[in-house]
Amino acid sequence: AENLKKRKIAVLGSRSVGKSSLVIQFINNEFVESYYPTIEATFAKSVKYKGAEYDCEVIDTAGQDEFSILNSKHAIGIHGYVLVYSVTSKASFDMIQIVYDKIIAFCGVTDIPCVVVGSKVDLDSSRQVSPQDGEKLAREINATWVETSAKTNVNVGKVFELCLAEIEKRAPQTGEA
Ligand code: GDP
User: Fold this and answer.
1) Which protein residue's CA is at the shortest distance from atom 19 of ligand 1?
2) What is the pLDDT of residue 6?
3) Which of 35, 36, 51, 92 is most solvent-facing, going by the fewest CB within 10 Å?
């Protein structure tokens, strides 16, 4: 349909934080314990948000390092970013700022539509990153923050809704130059 809006969303973050699991849960509504990623994978799903239908293309950096996607053909035309850390890994959390800085430098802009995701919240007993730290970082980079579990399907759809919201927030308003 011609009222279908295309939105390209890239999912980035350290290895093993659960990027593929998050994407697979979003696309297929399942948690696959042993999902073997190939290289990069792109997935499509249409999402209703605020009365409009969005044709989302989700790019998973499966099996590659955090930055490889920025140099790939998939990087062209990305509208929004989902930056994932695991609440059980302080190292993966520290990586978020580095990935963010890299995107900013790569895109040559000062602000990008971005959602910071603390994953694996079902593993609360192994938590290394507090919700407060997650929220604070997100505020500093002008992003939205949310905690999720791909395993127990907590806030998975929400991640992509929030990303659409971040994208729409920055989209030029009708009537403006
Ligand atoms: P990726 O390398 O970032 O794509 O991470 P994967 O999606 O391959 O997940 C890495 C590991 O974490 C796998 O063993 C997953 O089963 C596990 N995992 C992913 N998401 C969750 C989650 O929400 N909860 C738990 N407990 N484990 C998860």
Assistant:
1) 18
2) 94
3) 51
- What residues flank ligand 1, with Cβ below 6 Å? 15-21, 33, 35, 62, 119-120, 122-123, 149-151
Nearest CA to ligand 1 atom 6: 18
Residue carrying the six token digits 């290394």: 128
Distance CA 154, CA 149 (A): 5
Could you tell me the two tokens for 114? 């971005």
Instruction: Check: CB of residue 13 under 8 Å from CB of residue 19.
Output: yes
Reported ipTM: 0.99
> pLDDT tens digits, residue range 111-140?
999 999 999 999 999 999 999 999 999 999
Angle between helical axes of 90-107 and 131-140 (0-180°, round to 10): 10
Q: pLDDT tens digits, residue range 156-170?
A: 999 999 999 999 998
DSSP string, 16-58: TSSHHHHHHHHHHS---TT----S-EEEEEEEEETTEEEEEEE
Q: Whose CA is nearest to atom 24 of ligand 1?
A: 120
Strand partners, 147: 118
